[in-house]
Design a protein that fits this description.
Low-confidence stretches: none
Order of helices and strands: HEHHEE
Largest sheet: 3 strands, antiparallel
Mean pLDDT: 89
Radius of gyration: 12 Å
Strand content: 15-25%
Shape: globular
Helix content: 25-40%
Oligomer: single chain
Length: about 80
Amino acid sequence: MSFTTITTRQKTFLENYLRGTGKTLTAADASARFGIQNLPARMSEFREHGLNVRVDSSSKGTARYAVSARDAAGSRAKKFS
């Protein structure tokens, strides 16, 4: 069960939560805190739309995702609304 109820689409929520904020998120965090079950798929969709997604891997094999403020073309415009 998640502690937060998301009233917007997952991609819109994640863009607002991660993009340019310096915050990072793991799949386990996304599932536990926000009820997002497939975070790697959402990050793939971000890449397809031209966003710069950074993935840091821990020694345990856990991926931690972050999204830069600017997309591949240098724009800060929102991709998802």
